[in-house]
Amino acid sequence: MIAALTQLLVLQLVGEVIARGFNLPIPGPVIGMLLLFLALALRGGPPPDLQSTSQGLLQHLSLLFVPAGTGIILHLHRVADEWLPLLLSLLFSTVLTLALTALVMRLCAQRVVTGE
């Protein structure tokens, strides 16, 4: 478990170093996640210890929303002042996500049917 957590944190650190070193607009943890994906794709999947550690972290994923909820409560006055732009951006991003998901699903279904 310690080795798997170390792997995850090292990849996040490498992503952070890349993001800051090249002054990229992409967050370091996202780059670290892409590096993890590439490493797992090259290996053919996760090793058992990484898989079990990741499953354990995912079981407690809801705890990661506590800081965000605390931040919203802390800045509730800003949310009240800017409710319309927040609402519009949430609605637009939701509709856009649904549309893109449907488009990707349609393209994937066509590929399965045609056998590509």
Summary tags:
116 residues, mainly alpha, 6 helices, 0% strand, CidA/LrgA family protein, transmembrane helix, LrgA/CidA, transmembrane, cell membrane
Count of helical regions: 6
Task: Return the string of H and E elements.
Answer: HHHHHH
Overall outline: extended
Beta-strand segment tally: 0
SS-based structural class? Answer: mainly alpha
What would your notes on this structure say?
This protein has 116 residues and is mainly α. The chain has two domains: 1-59; 65-116. 82% of the residues lie in helices and 0% in strands. The chain has six helices and no strands. It has helices at residues 2-21, 28-43, 48-59, 66-74, 76-81, 83-114. Helix 1 (2-21) crosses helix 2 and helix 1 (2-21) crosses helix 3 (48-59). The radius of gyration is 19 Å and the shape is extended. The model has no long low-confidence stretch (mean pLDDT 92).
Short summary:
This protein is an all-alpha fold. Helices cover 82% and strands 0% of the residues. α1 (2-21) crosses α2 (28-43) and α1 packs across α3.
